Amino acid sequence: MLVSRNGHKNLRDSNVTHTTSFLNPQGEVNYETIPKWPWLVFLTGAMTCLICSSMSHLFACHSRRFNLFFWRLDYAGISLMIVCSFFAPIYYAFSCHTNWRLFYLSSISILGLLAIFALLSPALSAPRFRSFRAALFLTMGFSGVIPASHVLYLHKDHPNVVIALGYELAMAVLYATGAGFYVSRIPERWKPGAFDIAGHSHQIFHVFVVLGALAHSVASLLIMDFRRASPSCAF
After folding, report:
1. Can you tell me the distance from the alpha carbon of 137 to that of 28, in angstroms, rounded to the nearest whole number?
2. Are 75 and 123 in contact (CB under 8 A)?
3. In a domain, 177, yes or no
4. What is the CA radius of gyration of the chain?
5. Residue 11's pLDDT band (boundaries 50, 70, 90)?
6. pTM score, two decimals?
7. 18 marked among binding-site residues
8. pLDDT tens-digit profile of 175-224?
9. CA neighbours within 13 Å on the CB side: how many for 115?
10. What is the pLDDT of residues 31-83, one digit of tens each?
11. In Å, what is the CA distance from 119 to each residue of 79, 101, 166, 210?
């Protein structure tokens, strides 16, 4: 039994080392030197968004009252995920600049709360506000250009930061592409009824949202490894 436990431990340690070397080519680092709660905030926000979306698609057809409530819940879930996405990269990238960290996290949190309150309004759930909702989501997402530019200015010589910003750019492109399908209602506008089950613009939108979240996950892990390599703010 002792040999078996040691064997499992060695296998687990080797997997951790392999993952670390992929994200951080500079070598093995200590996984206990930085807080993990900002990463958990992002994961919680992403999962909550997808849960709200699943519930909306499942129950919105129940009645008009359910339709209004659950679609508003869906929009609020998207806003929540956008806000939570900022926590991990900003917290770790600005760990040594606490005033900037507080400013950026407070700003996006306030903007997110205002967006959620606006989207919970029954009036804004109407189809004619479809473009407004998409614009609101994109505005929240692209507000990250400011802290991203700041991080690049501070740490432009560190490869993890540069690569992470590349993934964040990919995330922005994916989200914008998904929003484009959502607003334009392509392809169902070309052939109404043909894409009611599969291939609808809303389904395509969700695919791009998941891909964008995956790109952001990789970027956040790279920023985490960047901070793990210097928990004492050597750089």
Report:
1. 38
2. no
3. yes
4. 20
5. very low
6. 0.78
7. no
8. 889 989 988 999 999 999 889 888 989 889 889 989 999 999 999 999 99
9. 26
10. 557 899 999 999 999 999 999 999 998 999 999 889 888 988 888 888 899 89
11. 9, 27, 30, 21
Residue 178 lies in a domain: yes
The pLDDT tens digits for 81-123 are: 989 999 999 999 998 899 999 999 999 998 888 888 877 777 7
Cβ 172 vs Cβ 155: under 8 Å: no
206 labelled binding-site residue: yes
Give the C-alpha separation, 71 to 61, whole Å. 10
Question: Counting every residue, how long is the chain?
Answer: 235
Q: Which tokens sit at 212?
A: 């964008």
- The mean pLDDT value for 140-163 works out to 89
Both tokens of 182, joined, read 């959502």
Say which amino acid occupies 125.
S
Name the DSSP letter for residue 133: H
**Of 235, 165, 226, 232, whose CA–CA distance to 24 is shortest?**
226
Taking residue 111's Cβ as centre, other Cβ atoms within 10 Å add up to 18
Residue 202 annotated in ligand binding: yes
24, part of any domain: no
Parent domain of 107: 34-228
For residue 15, is it within any domain? no
Tally the domains of the chain.
1
